[in-house]
Design goal:
Elements: H1 3-13, H2 22-33, H3 39-48, H4 59-77, E1 86-87, E2 90-91, H5 93-97, H6 99-122, H7 127-141, H8 146-155, H9 163-189, H10 193-220, H11 223-226, H12 232-235, H13 241-266, H14 272-282
Antiparallel strand pairs: 1-2
Helix pairs in contact: 2-6, 3-4, 3-9, 3-14, 4-6, 6-7, 7-9, 8-9, 9-10, 10-13, 13-14
Bound molecules: geranylgeranyl diphosphate.
The site of geranylgeranyl diphosphate has 17 residues, from helix 4, helix 8, helix 9 and helix 10.
Length: 286
């Protein structure tokens, strides 16, 4: 992915305004443009580029996904949820812009994501393909995906639970957006049904690994490296794989998932960009 072009696209998708809506726009831009690894757009674009050369066509979808992800981080940091003061190396949105603006900024980002995807569909040559991509994206973000997972995550705070409960939370809260990133890249690139299924499976595998790493980083990383508070899971009595199974098993499971991911990526030709991103993700330190 061309990072500079994508950052420009994101910035232009939410231009600064000086009118009455300025406070919410400042808050949206503050969170969206203030750092972030851009893992999900990178995955979407890399999946797309296995089938299509020019990446700009998929920017509206990649930007929409990053907006949805950013809104979830803003809302997750609110006092009513995880109550975290630091995000992407800076004060969380509600600390910098106030709680009301942070709620609105999250809502605004979700809405802007919809506007981008609808506009892209209207000018597409094959609107049905755009609708399939839109359905994947918004289902992943909704009650069957990220919102459902976040609800379960809150439900299990401080509670005993089984592996299946944990799997539900990880698949929905974290893996759903990663899975749709790859699926949308495949759908819009023109991948076959079978290839889309493989991409979805890959998304589940790396989404799970990504969450297990997040558990480890929350304990063993530093605030400087992560750009967000460490020990947040313990503070909120979160149910995590690490808590259930310990460090060694968590690391071993990540290694197993890595092998599975490698096999799935290798089933595609022209997969260098995707391979690089998956490797970077699975070796991440922040
Ligand atoms: C509030 C609807 C709603 C959902 C919140 C994002 C989320 C769901 C919770 C945040 C806590 C958490 C551990 C989520 C798992 C997903 C995850 C690892 C998010 C962080 O993603 P990165 O590392 O962040 O890609 P950057 O800042 O690099 O974009």
């Amino acid at each position: 992915m061309n990072h500079e072009m994508f950052e420009n696209f994101l910035s232009e998708a939410i231009p600064e305004r000086s009118g009455y809506e300025a406070p919410v726009i400042h808050a949206m831009r503050y969170s969206l443009l203030g750092g972030g690894k851009r893992v999900r757009p990178s995955l979407m674009i890399a999946a797309y580029r296995m089938f299509e050369e020019r990446e700009e066509a998929i920017y509206p979808y990649a930007a929409a996904l990053e907006m949805i992800h950013t809104y979830s981080l803003i809302h997750d940091d609110l006092p009513a949820m995880d109550d975290d003061d630091l995000r992407r190396g800076r004060p969380s949105c509600h600390i910098a812009h106030g709680e009301a603006n942070a709620i609105l900024a999250g809502d605004g980002l979700l809405n802007q994501a919809m506007e981008l995807v609808v506009a892209a569909g209207l000018s597409a040559e094959e609107p049905k393909t755009s609708l399939r991509a839109a359905r994947s994206l918004f289902t992943a973000a909704g009650i069957q995906g990220m919102i459902g997972g976040q609800t379960a995550d809150l439900l299990f705070e401080g509670k005993e639970a089984k592996e299946n409960d944990l799997l539900f939370i990880h698949q929905k809260k974290t893996a759903a957006l990663i899975r749709t990133a790859l699926e949308v890249g495949g759908i819009l690139g023109g991948a076959s049904e079978k290839e889309c299924e493989t991409l979805k499976k890959l998304g589940e595998v790396i989404g799970y690994a990504f969450q297990l790493q997040d558990d480890l980083l929350d304990v063993f990383s530093t605030v400087e490296e992560l750009g967000k508070p460490i020990g947040s899971d313990k503070k909120n009595e979160k149910l995590t794989f690490l808590k259930l199974y310990g460090v060694e098993q968590t690391k071993e499971t990540i290694r197993d998932l890595f092998v599975q991911a490698d096999e799935l990526v290798s089933s595609f030709g022209n997969n260098e960009e995707l391979q690089t991103i998956v490797n970077e993700m699975l070796n991440r330190r922040s």
